[in-house]
Amino acid sequence: MGFKKYILASFLLLAIVAGYVYSLEIGNYNLIILELGLNITLPIYIWIVVPAFALFIASVIHMMFYGAKGYFGRKTLENDIAKLSVVLKDRLLNNTSNVIIKTKELKEVASVLNQLEINVNDNKLNTTSSKIAKASEDISKINSGEYVNIKDLKLSDSNPLTQTNILNRVNNDDNYAIEVLKSASSYNPATVEIAFANIVENKSFDTVKKIATNMTLTKEMVKLLLAKDSKASKEFSLTNTEILVYIQDCKLTNDELIVIAGNYKRNMSPEQLIKLFEDISANDEALTASYLYVLFEYEMKDQIREILVNSQKDEFIIFKALLDLKDAGKHYNYDSLAV
């Protein structure tokens, strides 16, 4: 029975009872309570109707209280169910949700969701929630290498999706890669390295050189820069002094320098290449092996012999063996012996 119908039926019942008792004409009743000083005389129909009316009022208050309690409970449940969508969206985005859920059972569900790692496949999720559908669509695009404007997702800078999205933009937009390198301290080191690799591959050496001048380069970045320089025109190529600075700053190994020497041999004059590696060896004796490699490439036996004669017995074994083979008229190179 509806609340309004209950009130109407109750009033009707009270009226019928009151009318019936009144029709009996059974007179009045005198209520005396000496302890309370009460002395009340009323018609009997009133004495019957008043308690019934009081019970009616009490029942109405009871129904209103539990009706309101049930209403607010349902609203809380509805709100908490809606909040679960927010929790799910946050987990899709690798965020820990701070949404407050009041319903005990749903609070437990939210706690479990916050501990799960949820991955989206190549297609957006099939859901009636527009927010979850949009988030899953953006995530799919990011995971597939596409750059997405994620301002509405409100992701932190440290969120993996943010970092992946930035990498996508770096890989798809050379001009943005340049902007990343100009503000390298504001980006993840891995992102900076990828941005540098992209401009080395796609931009002119003049552009790369200008950008590198204002950066602190990692070893891998220096190797990429020098590989690019080995193919550059003389007009824009690095000087030996500049190359030396890059090598000293990143502490390249002999093996890495030998690869670099092989690249430079294609378009650098023998005199310049020999002088470069002579200076490298002079600045750091531990890199003498790379200098010997260059000397062997140009058959500079006198300089080779001078270095090897003055070396320790257990130093430069491969180069000593290579020199002995050449003296014996056998033609081997460093790469064949090093393997």
Describe the structure.
With 339 residues, the chain is mainly alpha-helical. The protein is built from 16 helices and two strands. The protein has a two-stranded antiparallel sheet with strand order 1-2. The relative contact order is 0.04. The mean pLDDT is 84.
Question: What is the gist of this entry?
Answer:
The protein is mostly helical and 339 residues long. It has helices at residues 3-23, 44-92, 104-113, 130-143, 160-172, 174-182, 189-202, 205-213, 219-229, 240-250, 254-264, 270-283, 288-297, 301-309, 317-327, 334-338, and strands spanning 28-33, 38-43.
Question: Which terms summarize this structure?
Answer:
339 residues, mainly alpha, two-stranded antiparallel sheet, 16 helices, 2 strands, 65% helix, 4% strand
Largest sheet: 2 strands, antiparallel
The ordered H/E elements are HEEHHHHHHHHHHHHHHH
**Got a strand count?**
2
Instruction: Determine the number of helices (DSSP H or I, runs of at least 4 residues).
Output: 16
Distance between the termini: 94 Å
Form type: rod-shaped
> In which range does the helix fraction lie?
55-70%
Give the strand content: under 5%
Note poorly predicted spans: none
Spatial strand sequence of the major β-sheet: 1-2
Radius of gyration: 44 Å
- What oligomeric state best describes the polypeptide chains here? single chain
Structural class: mainly alpha
Write down the overall mean pLDDT. Answer: 84
